Amino acid sequence: MNIYSNILLSHNSSILSSTSNILSSTSSYFLEQSFDPKQQQSSLLYFMMGAAVKYSSRGPALIPRMKTKHRIYYITLFSVVLLGLIATGMFQFWPHSIESSAEWSLDRRSVHDAPLVKIPVSSPIPERGDLSCRMHTCFDVYRCGYNPKNKIKVYIYPLQRFVDEVGVSISSTGLSREYNDLLSAISDSDFYTDDMNKACLFVPSIDVLNQNSLRIRETAQALTMLPRWEKGMNHLLFNMLPGGPPDYNTALDVPRDRALLAGGGFSTWTYRPGYDVSIPVYSPLSAEVDLPERQPGPRRYFILSSQTAIHREYRVELERLKEENGEALLLLDKCSNLSQGLASVRKRCYKGKVYDYPQILQESSFCVVLRGARLGQATLSDVLQAGCVPVIMADSYILPFSEVLDWKRASVVIPEEKLPEMYTILKSITHRQVEEMQRQARWFWLAYFSSMKAIGMTTLQIINDRIYPYAARTYEEWNNPHVVKWSSVNSPLFLPLISPRSPGFTAVVLTYDRIESLFRVITEISKVPSLAKLLVVWNNQNKSPPEESLWPKVAVPLKVVRTTENKLSNRFFPFDEIETEAVLAIDDDIIMLTSDELQFGYEVWREFPDRLVGYPGRLHLWDHEMGKWKYESEWTNEVSMVLTGAAFYHKYFNYLYTYKMPGDIKNWVDAHMNCEDIAMNFLVANITGKAPIKLEGYSDFVQVHSGRSLGYVHSVASKDLNLHPSLLHIPPSELKRVSVTPRKKFKCPECTAIDGLSLDQTHMVERSECINKFASVFGTMPLKVVEHRADPVLYKDDFPEKLKSFPNIGSL
Q1: DSSP states along 310-379
Q2: 405, 420, 450 — which closes off a domain?
Q3: Which segments constitute the Exostosin GT47 domain (predicted)?
Q4: Is residue 595 part of a domain?
């Protein structure tokens, strides 16, 4: 039965709908299983092979002719045997697939089929609940242990029917549809385990969502009969409708010892911070009514009140505000001329005019959510679904998931005593702020309120983050719509507590149609010992990539990704195939780098994972005559950018570039087909405040001749104040000043100066325009000028090549 007694008719119709959906999905499953492309291919192959057998009008050439009646007899017998074998196979194997894929499906979890358990009168009763419980005092984290996925394991107790000694059930409703959906979601998730010995968290199959349907004492005794109860340690209970008349306590009244409580109406007096989880009161209308998303902006009404069971003093005050502000405020109430049931739930009235609910909520900018008999109200979920900004007036109410969600971005919280000033307070909010809150409110509902599954998974994720804090979601991942995709990506700005799972780097090669040089680049990169994967971004929509047999044979995975549009920003898209933290961005014409140089570059990046580490360096200068920034590619001692035609960086910056690039820079780059590398340099420098690391470049530099474990040294100068601390205390005896001849490795040997793109004057002007455009959007110049270079130890010394860490670095 449903946990809401006042919408029984809605629940019954939902059960009929769910039953029909189950039947239709089951038939669809049979239809899907009957078509297997592999089986079809095998059958076709068998048919083609059979076609080679020589047949005549009398049958196969090797089979003697049978009489018609005998042939019919054998055909019939063969058909019966075949059907029997098929039926036997389905009987043997079909139930196992159901158990493994849908162990907690609705048709299997029937209260009537569950074993009966009698509760003795003398069964112990748990303590009411320790308000001092915290994760470090009442939760055994050692049960969770370590696992590579940093996921807690949740065990669901088998369904049992608890009755007292005279056979009366502990619940008047049995298992509600909502709790069934919740358990199904958990059992289908990565959190679930069917081995209680491996479990970190235990969820009883006893439905306590609605306290009104429970016998308090008997339910508490049933909890103590669970095999691993142990005073509620590591047990999680879900409750949405706590308390009962006349006081309506804000937490579940069932004694529960040390069990965690995910409650839907906590107050500051009953909530245990960092232990309990405040969850929303689920609205059944979420499953019944599909409200299409509406664009943020001004609405027909400014304020709307739709609750039907609020205190009289609140309604009197709202009516006064209505008189003062007229049509800007719509005050709805229940319809007295409609019969109880489904119609009354989905309708609201004002002076005899009937409005559809919750559709009417989309017509208002702000929607009032007042406390009722309970602090938690399902109206909050309806309001968020409509994209209406909730105005919450419920003193001491712990907002749902407030441990991780920033409600200031999606709602307005006003003390109850400020209700007379509500209109003035809301009028002070700018239109832009209102639109942002409308957008955030709708996203909160989609991500965390829309279903029992969303509520359950959010609850488990919060508990998971407490147990594995080093793998916890960040504020941005909880509150920003796009950042939720970054959950597996760690920022390089902070040191991880555990080492990365995927060592090495992924080479991302951007190409269009230069097949010969692309294959040369792939062949050379494949020789790098630290290469983990090759990803070719095919940016040509008019031409297909070469056939698989034509590609170079490499020892690492190679995948070609075809893009839908020819954009330079495609090289910085956060592809799922990039599993390593290190990314090498390289063009398909960079054929001059050796495997030693690339390996050396990767090892330097490991020392500076928050910076761009690259080979060709560039500089930005201020043109005093023009009053603008200027792009400079001449060889100088200074560098402020490295080109991403050959550069290492952390994959975290792919997400920032794709989803968080300021202003219209990303679209501007795609439209002009230029400067994506400058944009990435701006982004990284703005985030880190640091200059890039240039490899094997050109400039006067100071070289360290002391041995290092990585086999390289840093060429440093006093201008770089962001270097590794170990480089700032170099004894003078280890330093000597040398003059280095510039390496001309990045000049195309087959090209003339006139044809070179980097030397083309028009190209240089466009690059200068990019710098000025980006500086304007960022509002500052984030690029840092530095005199610094990293080179291998002994790369210039006369020393046997076989003793050098990187012998094939190239001559000066």
Answers
A1: --HHHHHHHHHHHHHHGGGEEE-B--TTS-TTHHHHTEEEETTEEEETTGGGGGEEEEEEE--SSS--TH
A2: 450
A3: 149-429
A4: yes
